[in-house]
Amino acid sequence: HPLALAQQRQVAEIFSQTILTVRRWAEAGCPFTRRGQKLFFNEGEVAAWLQTQPNRGDGPGVAPAEIPPDLAEARRRKELALATKYELQVAEARGELVPVSDACGVLAELGSKLKSRLLGLGAAVSARCEGLSAAQVQKVVDAAIRDVLTELCDTASVADPDLAKIVGAAANGNAEPMGGAKPLPAARPKR
């Protein structure tokens, strides 16, 4: 859906100016679209154009320095909010956004599967680790963790291909350890 255009009156209200000032801006080069006798403006383009103008006020002698700081800050926040709003609208139109509830559902399912698989990991590998050196135990545990992550990657690929790439990178050992984790120290020999 295209960006909304504002008429002269709306632009005058938004920027706390008169309609005559908005007409002067158009004559001075402010971007606008003409439909019949009416002028239409994109608020973001007007704000950007105003930033390039030495005199943004209602006429001679009203310089940017005379705009009260709190009003200037409020205008800046509004411009940023509008830019963010338009970016979100474009992302939504492209289908790049997902409802939070959908993302939470997928992550909860993956988290639940990860938890149950990791809790069973000790029992699954303990029999295979008896009598092995610390390095061999580490290889067995790493292989078991990769199996768990590969299974999660298969589940994630159904829900979200990007999520599957992240889980897949971890399963293949291409991901950085989380939280600055370091390899476990070698186990001490039993006495």
Task: Please sum up the structure shown.
It contains eight helices and three strands; from the N terminus they run E-H-H-E-E-H-H-H-H-H-H.
Task: Please outline the helices and strands.
Blueprint: E1 6-7, H1 8-14, H2 19-27, E2 33-35, E3 38-41, H3 43-51, H4 69-93, H5 100-119, H6 121-129, H7 134-159, H8 161-171
Antiparallel strand pairs: 1-3, 2-3
Helix pairs in contact: 1-2, 5-7, 6-7, 7-8
Describe the structure.
- The chain has a 3-stranded antiparallel sheet.
- With 191 residues, the protein is mostly helical.
- It contains 8 helices and 3 strands, in the order E-H-H-E-E-H-H-H-H-H-H.
- The protein starts with 5 loop residues before the first strand and ends in a 20-residue tail after the last helix.
- Strand 2 (33-35) and strand 3 form a beta hairpin.
- It has helices at 8-14, 19-27, 43-51, 69-93, 100-119, 121-129, 134-159, 161-171, and strands at residues 6-7, 33-35, 38-41.
- Helices cover 61% and strands 5% of the residues.
Order of helices and strands: EHHEEHHHHHH
Q: With helices defined by DSSP (H or I, 4 residues minimum), what is the helix count?
A: 8
Helix coverage percent? 55-70%
Strand tally is 3
Query: Which overall shape is indicated by the principal axes computed on the Cα atoms?
Result: rod-shaped
Q: Structural class of the helices, strands and pairings?
A: mainly alpha
Strand content: under 5%
**Poorly predicted sequence stretches spanning 5 or more consecutive residues:** 57-65, 176-184
Query: Kindly state the mean pLDDT as a whole number?
Result: 76
Radius of gyration: 30 Å
Largest sheet: 3 strands, antiparallel
- Side by side, the strands of the main sheet go 1-3-2
Q: Terminal Cα separation, in Å?
A: 72 Å
